[in-house]
Design a protein that fits this description.
79% helix, elongated, Stage II sporulation protein M, SpoIIM-like, membrane
Length: 323
């Protein structure tokens, strides 16, 4: 991007921030942190592409003033890790909501294919899930323990094993985005078909309700795989559609943004692993209100953090800029 275009694109935002600093306007600490994150991102970009320019000097000066202002507030919550999940990531992720929607639609299309295929061909589920797993599950169903596989192993061992495996799947979904998003789409599609086949398999045996036990951990687990798919598509699409950047610069930015999305999923995978390790094994003994309460709370958490909260935070920031 040319320096003139960069300045034109961000000038209004810088001027609002500068005016607030110089006129000693009282800024909400949360909004101040959001402004500062955006400013440091712009400063980093200018350092890379416009060294020794007046724009760099201006941003450096403004960032120094902002840093002093933040230091004076002595907010205990300026912990960088907390700031990332509370402000930086939600503000940033709002720009990729459309990509998240595409990832979700791809995944749900695959689920539908898995459902229809399993309904019309009993052997399809064996092709997707494997004979060993299908035979074991049928045996468990006949023994009256369809969810027996989730009761094996120690609680801590299951928690650690599942969490590590889920993070591995997320990293693969992201990394495959390097294949111009096609690799990530394949991961989303294959996981979607597996889910559709799995659910329909239990439906065919008349025990679909039993799958609510799996959704205790699966609600977060499946949702975050879709989000990791979004991360891979962000990286792959950045090369296919570089906009005003060169393909190299666009790809580097896309890879960085995608990695940031993957990092945001780690706490949720830990939560899902914890639920699977310590709660799923007792799912059938749980009162239905508790079981479905956990599922609803998990879904609400994902939707709020990745969809509602970013929209709300960006809207508040926009209102602050206009006031």
């Amino acid at each position: 991007m040319r320096e003139a275009s960069f300045v034109k694109q961000n000038k209004e935002k810088w001027m609002v921030f500068e005016k607030a600093l110089h006129n000693n306007v009282k800024i909400n600490p949360d909004d101040l942190a959001s402004y500062y994150i955006q400013l440091t991102n712009d400063l980093s970009y200018a350092q890379t592409y416009y060294p020794d320019s007046k724009t760099l000097l201006y941003l450096n000066s403004l960032a120094s003033e902002a840093h002093q202002k933040i230091y004076i507030t002595k907010r205990e919550s300026k912990n960088k890790i907390v700031s990332f999940w509370k402000y930086e990531f939600p503000l940033f992720f709002k720009h990729y909501h459309k990509t998240l929607l595409y990832a979700f639609l791809i995944f749900m299309s695959a689920v539908l294919i898995g459902v229809i295929s399993t309904l019309h061909d009993d052997n399809f589920v064996r092709l997707i899930l494997g004979d060993a797993y299908v035979n074991m599950t049928i045996e468990n169903i006949e023994n009256g323990e369809p969810m027996a596989v989730y009761k094996s192993g120690s609680q801590v061992g299951t928690f650690l094993g599942i969490t590590i495996n889920n993070i591995r799947v997320a990293i693969i979904a992201f990394a495959f985005g390097v294949l111009f998003s096609a690799g990530t789409i394949y991961v989303l599609f294959s996981n979607g078909i597996m889910l559709g086949a799995f659910i329909t398999f239990f439906y065919n045996y008349g025990i679909l309700e039993k799958t609510s036990t799996i959704w205790l951990h699966g609600t977060i687990e499946i949702s975050v795989i879709v989000i990791a798919g979004c991360a891979g598509m962000v990286m792959g699409n950045s090369f296919l559609f570089p906009k005003t950047y060169s393909r190299r610069v666009a790809f580097m930015k896309g890879a960085k943004d995608g990695l940031k999305i993957v990092v945001s999923t780690i706490p949720f995978f830990i939560i899902a692993g914890f639920i699977e390790g310590f709660f799923t094994r007792f799912g059938e003994q749980m009162p239905w209100i508790l079981r479905y309460g956990i599922i609803l709370a998990s879904l609400t958490l994902i939707i709020y953090y990745y969809v509602i909260y970013p929209i709300k935070l960006n809207r508040n920031l926009k209102l602050t800029n206009e006031s």
